[in-house]
Design a protein that fits this description.
The chain is an alpha/beta fold. Helices cover 36% and strands 21% of the residues. It has a 7-stranded mixed β-sheet, with helices on both faces. The longest helix has 19 residues. The protein is globular, with a radius of gyration of 19 Å.
Amino acid sequence: MDDFTDKIKKIIVPKIKNIKNPKILEFGVQKGRSTIEFLKCCETNDGHLYSFDIDDCSKVSQSKNWSFHQSRDDNFEFIEKIIPESVDVIFLDTIHEADHVKKIIYKYFNRLKINGLFIIDDISHLPYTKNKLRNNFYCEINNKETFNKILEIYDNNQENFDLEFSFISSGLAIIIKRQNHINEIKPIVFRENQLKNIIRKIWKKVKKD
């Protein structure tokens, strides 16, 4: 089993396998690894999976519980005519860039049911850092920026959703919706570069020496 499928089975499937008549919205199909696992839940519990990808992935499955549409995830007018008014799960695995992820979260958040899950793949930069097995500049930088962007969104919406992270493989962020509202983000004000912390670091070094 590859690490992506292992991540889906260990982290996501236990959270969705008991949902009755689940409606799942999947952005990004590729080889169909997540699609197959979502379909197992839909076929067991009489649900339906709506998948979108820019490539033609229609041959991944012939399941009656699956609808595939070839489209970008931000083709909003097209997609909103197809998907239900409310869904139980949204899985995002398309463009792994912070601003794009933010755009998709804000656009489809209101389609998610209360207690529904919005799952974002590839939020960990650790496997892609220099000298690691997946050593990749693009993935390292974009995954780290995406992680930080999700933290910014959460910082301004702690009453509107809960947030979990998994760092298995390339990681997952799991948003659990609590309110039918999402606030715009404001940058988090960190103090690590303030003079007080610089003095603290100098003092710690002096004590150590």
